[in-house]
Design goal:
single chain; alpha/beta; Rossmann fold; 5-stranded parallel β-sheet; 5 strands; globular
Amino acid sequence: MKITLDHNCIIHLANLTDVGKSIQAIVSDTENICFIVNIGASEMREKGVFPDRYDKFEELLVISGVDHLPRLDPMGIYDVTFWDRCLWADEEMSRLADAIEDALFPEALKIDITTAGIASPDGRKWLNRLCDVHTMWCHIRNANEVFLTSDSNFSKKTKLPKLLTLGAGRICRPEEL
């Protein structure tokens, strides 16, 4: 199976949680091909992962035991993505990202990141939403079969059908796979 690991999976692996142990078993299964998305959520920034420090992202992947996995590149976003590990977006790519954002965060208040600042609580919320959207975007764009996450937002009854319609395939928690 082609499996996309969301950023929470990497954090679980790095922190050696029980969920992380389930993820290790999934990654180790030779029937699976697991993918990492080249994007760092706000939790990763606490570990020194910033857009200009891809080496820190790689260090986190080494600590997590998944540095050998293939990568998926998201669309480039200033001050969010790694510049040498992202794609220039076209209209079709942007429409898919917008549709994913509408599915995941339909009632979310817009955050003016230039006013709030990326390090603020609102900025962290904005960054995590953006990472969720672009991780799912990479998953759908690359036609992976399973989206692995510990974030229940992806599987809420109001959101899951919309994501499946967009091409998400199966979305599940590590212990469900």
